[in-house]
Amino acid sequence: MYLPGNEFEVLGASHGNITMRELISAQMDGVYFPINIREFGSRVYFHDLMEGEYEISNIIVRTMLLSHPGNCLGYRVQYNGRAICYVTDNEMYNADSPFYNAHYVEKLTEFVREADALITDCTYTDDEYLSKIGWGHSSIGQVTDLAHNAEVKNLYLFHHDPDQTDTDIDHKLETVAKALEERGSKTKVVAPAESQSFTI
């Protein structure tokens, strides 16, 4: 970004009266970072995204507004007959919660339907979630239901609580794998580790 002649496009969720340019500029303010965006040598274009569908070089990108304080988008990227869904910072709530929205869960299920890969927020165990309602993150039980009901091929557990250890994450993985097996689900589940790579 500091080299003249380069061009970049930065796309992100619309936040009402705060533009994507203003959000990035604030993160690069002198308080946080020694160089601000006015010092870029390249041309940088900022785009505020809403829910919709975008096509870039035969790659279709769909977006969906997620359930999280402030605006957050989920992404479904489709190319060459494959689909990857990236859905993080998302709270689905339990069915007995007054905040539960069946329409939202149905919409999200269709958004990730039959994805080859669903990378999604599974921050809490079901027990931990009970004291974190409203924080904008989901439990492993909610994620298991979503992946099974949407018939996704591969579920990647992501966005763990910072206090959780590797052992805690392994336990979450085992819990989800067992729950999927009990449902007779074809969904495979992985808790990716640093430096792992996957082919879709």
| Cα distance spanning the termini | 30 Å
Gross CATH architecture of the largest domain: 4-Layer Sandwich
Uncertain segments are: none
Widest sheet: strand order? 3-4-5-6-7-8-9
Sheet bearing the most strands, described? 7 strands, mixed
What name does CATH use for the topology of the largest domain?
Metallo-beta-lactamase, Chain A
Question: How confident overall, as mean pLDDT?
Answer: 94
Structural class: alpha/beta
The sequence of SSEs as H and E is: EHEEEEEHEHHEHE
Radius of gyration: 19 Å
Which helices and strands occur, and which strands form pairs?
Elements lengths: L6 E7 L6 H8 L15 E7 L2 E5 L2 E7 L7 E7 L2 E6 L14 H10 L5 E5 L4 H4 L10 H10 L4 E5 L7 H17 L5 E3 L10
Parallel strand pairs: 1-2, 6-7, 7-8, 8-9
Antiparallel strand pairs: 3-4, 4-5, 5-6
Helix pairs in contact: 4-5
Short description:
This protein is an alpha/beta fold and 200 residues long. It has helices at residues 20-27, 102-111, 126-129, 140-149, 166-182; strands spanning 7-13, 43-49, 52-56, 59-65, 73-79, 82-87, 117-121, 154-158, 188-190. The mean pLDDT is 94.
Give the tags.
200 residues, Metallo-beta-lactamase, Chain A, 2 domains, 24% helix, globular
Tell me about this structure:
By secondary structure, the chain is α/β, with parallel strands linked by helices. It folds into 2 domains: 1-49, no CATH class; 51-190, Ribonuclease Z/Hydroxyacylglutathione hydrolase-like (Metallo-beta-lactamase, Chain A, 4-Layer Sandwich). The chain is 24% helix and 26% strand. The chain has a 7-stranded mixed sheet, covered by helices on one side. A two-stranded parallel ribbon has the order 1-2.
